[in-house]
Amino acid sequence: MALPTWDHPEPLAVDSAPVPEYGAGSLADLLPTLAAGMAVPGMTAAIPELTEADRNCVFLIDGLGWEQLKAHPDEAPFMTSLLASSRGGTGRPITAGYPATTATSLASVGTGLPPGAHGLPGYTARNPETGELMNQLRWNPWTSPRVWQPYPTVFQLAHEAGVHTAQVSSPTFQNTPLTKIALSGGTFHGRLSGEERMDLAAEQLAAGDRSLVYTYYAEVDGKGHRFGVDSDPWRGQLMYVDRLVQRLAEQLPPRTALYVTADHGMIDIPFDEQHRIDFDEDWELRAGVALLGGEGRARHVYAVPGAEVDVLTCWREVLGEQFWVASRDEAIAAGWFGPQIDERVYARIGDVVAAARDDVLIIATEREPKESAMVGNHGSMTPVEQLVPLLQVRS
User: What top-level branch of life does the organism fall under (predicted)?
Assistant: First the structure.
């Protein structure tokens, strides 16, 4: 008697995930490259396409991915005119890093290190010292910032090397733990309006013979989460920030390079059971799970001790055609979090790590009601989330 055959596709191979371009073209490589060009000791020019400048400005637009920018030339005419300048005139994007989420990406930008080293491996991650989930964007529950992320920022190293260093952002962020561990060094200047930030960033660039200035705008991401990237409010924000970029570009002092980038892209996910899998309603996915971390498209799953293999098997069986599902060691070996993992970071990563390939989310309507209601989402390694611009204007 012949054995039955099963028409069941194989799970996605862990090594088929498009790993970020750590060491040559990721967000973590940007500031070290710029600082190396300003002779800051210990810095390496990791993005070979970029050329040196005495004054460098990074304008990070939260949530504006490469694919969203390319798809909206009418809303962003000035940035569209700069697409060919991206990544040193190659017309190519860089990668955010995994997961493609704000806390992780801002830490990568500011420290010049990938997530496996700086230790912010997701929106929420387990604190091995307490066993609690820590929200690394809101820094809740509290833990010592310098214990959680002990490395100096590139801004601090540049300031110590005599570079005029400044951050220009919303006053709300001045004293947050995330700012302290990722973006501190030199002086912080809080300004409410986008126009004020652009004008002050230009002034700060001119304030030194060698300058490194960072500025930031959040509401493209905010409107994307609430209304989606296919919405009029999102498009309105894109139109506004395009004018901000042009305003800053027209004020650059001599010998300046302006780089416009983002921390991640975004994708709209439909509101139905096919695209939104509710962990809180799914007994199979809950079995053996002690904590659910990360976010909908980039999950850290922490198993009850002894249940790690069973949880991995179940998640791979249930989700493996739509998600890259890996054990902690498999994800590390594949380079998802960078080429090395610090010892203090190892147990912050889930026993199981699930990264979405398809247009799907693992929501948790009871544990995460606000996050589960978001239209626009991000976190995984797909191009729409992972690729970010590196537009350039030089004076």
Answer: Bacteria
